[in-house]
Amino acid sequence: MAHILAPSAQWQMRLSNKVAAPVNPMTGKMWSSLVMKKKGTTKGASKFRVFAIKAENSTINRLDNLLNLDITPFTDKIIAEYIWIGGSGIDLRSKARTIEKPVEHPSELPKWNYDGSSTGQAPGEDSEVIIYPQAIFKDPFRGGNNILVICDAYTPAGEPIPTNKRYRAAQIFSDPKVTAEVPWYGIEQEYTLLQQNVKWPLGWPVGGYPGPQGPYYCGAGADKSFGRDISDAHYKACLYAGINVSGTNGEVMPGQWEYQVGPSVGIDAADHIWCSRYILERITEQAGVVLSLDPKPIEGDWNGAGCHTNYRHLDFLFTLSKQMLRLSETSYITKAVVCGCSTKSMREDGGFEVIKKAILNLSLRHKDHISAYGEGNERRLTGKHETASIDQFSWGVANRGASIRVGRDTEKKGKGYLEDRRPASNMDPYIVTSLLAETTLLWQPTLEAEALAAQKLALKV
């Protein structure tokens, strides 16, 4: 979506007589794109700027100037946007407050509160919910020293409220057995862009369908790629914020996109995903487009939207980080960097046997994971469109139709990663990342159950 750029003082408007006195004068509801030319220059495309102007006044210009004000030369105060998860467990809420000076750590920020009765998280007669700052990111919307603050929610007595899934995740990730294994995650967040008024995918004819899937995945062109400006704006905003985004690409269904976050250690992966979702919500808000994390936004022969969660070999990532300086193939980068985690044991020699043991544990807790992997996931996990059946656990090497996929490189080297392809696009990353750590590192099945699972899955551990 094109941005509205206000001219600085050194620019002037150059209009012909025809523009100054049009046959149909502009009204307050009409807009014109006008070329702005820098004083004293006649050449070079870089000398021009395009902006929108309202006929009667320059309200938009003045508003834009105020939004872009840099307050750092005039005050040490900053704006902190406190962000938390609402009552549905997937909706994001936020409000801003002034902080006296820049901060570097969440512990420097005060706790705050909000009206939980308005978010479905507290009764009206006792509606105060307390939010604790947990993670800080740079604010790409306000710039300067301003920040975005990821928070979790508690009662006034200090108890985590039911929708606070971060609290339990922090407990799991602080367990000595988990911290010793240094779990790294890479998460592929898929999403769909919808037209605001009709809630139909961006680029689709209203009430109709585009051509069949095939040309849209990583495609280019006005008839194949819809929403690239939003994807690119989000990509840059996340990097500015300090979110560890490793790539992005157009997905199989037109109007659907994906970005990848990681590698990130432990709970940081979930904090980064939640902040990246908030930034995406704000960008689509500005663009007048609706963000959907529905796992199956369009029924029929169309791909759903998932949030594949990966363990990845750290030696591979270190090598890749050096290779990226020499690579220019976007498709390779976005698909290779996406996977971001392994446990220490998985990435060492003999790690494939550890991975197979983790797969056994995951198979035995399949129902527990499915119940926590996102609402409406049964509409996506049908066994079609690169998914496994929701009712059956499966695994395979390089198999995108399995519950758990193991990379071909992992099999070859005998160490590496596993990818859980079951989580839906609307999953809670606090739940998914911590549940993976709990199941693979802390939970111990009975020997009998393990033996039966190994036989069923044809695994030798």
Automatic annotation (TrEMBL):
<keyword id="KW-0547">Nucleotide-binding</keyword>
<dbReference type="InterPro" id="IPR050292">
    <property type="entry name" value="Glutamine_Synthetase"/>
</dbReference>
<dbReference type="GO" id="GO:0009507">
    <property type="term" value="C:chloroplast"/>
</dbReference>
<dbReference type="InterPro" id="IPR027302">
    <property type="entry name" value="Gln_synth_N_conserv_site"/>
</dbReference>
<keyword id="KW-0809">Transit peptide</keyword>
<feature type="domain" description="GS catalytic">
    <location>
        <begin position="162"/>
        <end position="461"/>
    </location>
</feature>
<dbReference type="InterPro" id="IPR008147">
    <property type="entry name" value="Gln_synt_N"/>
</dbReference>
<keyword id="KW-0150">Chloroplast</keyword>
<dbReference type="InterPro" id="IPR036651">
    <property type="entry name" value="Gln_synt_N_sf"/>
</dbReference>
<dbReference type="GO" id="GO:0004356">
    <property type="term" value="F:glutamine synthetase activity"/>
</dbReference>
<comment type="similarity">
    <text>Belongs to the glutamine synthetase family.</text>
</comment>
<protein>
    <recommendedName>
        <fullName>glutamine synthetase</fullName>
        <ecNumber>6.3.1.2</ecNumber>
    </recommendedName>
</protein>
<keyword id="KW-0963">Cytoplasm</keyword>
<feature type="domain" description="GS beta-grasp">
    <location>
        <begin position="78"/>
        <end position="158"/>
    </location>
</feature>
<dbReference type="InterPro" id="IPR008146">
    <property type="entry name" value="Gln_synth_cat_dom"/>
</dbReference>
<comment type="subunit">
    <text>Homooctamer.</text>
</comment>
<dbReference type="Pfam" id="PF00120">
    <property type="entry name" value="Gln-synt_C"/>
</dbReference>
<keyword id="KW-0934">Plastid</keyword>
<keyword id="KW-0067">ATP-binding</keyword>
<dbReference type="GO" id="GO:0005524">
    <property type="term" value="F:ATP binding"/>
</dbReference>
<dbReference type="InterPro" id="IPR014746">
    <property type="entry name" value="Gln_synth/guanido_kin_cat_dom"/>
</dbReference>
<keyword id="KW-0436">Ligase</keyword>
<dbReference type="GO" id="GO:0006542">
    <property type="term" value="P:glutamine biosynthetic process"/>
</dbReference>
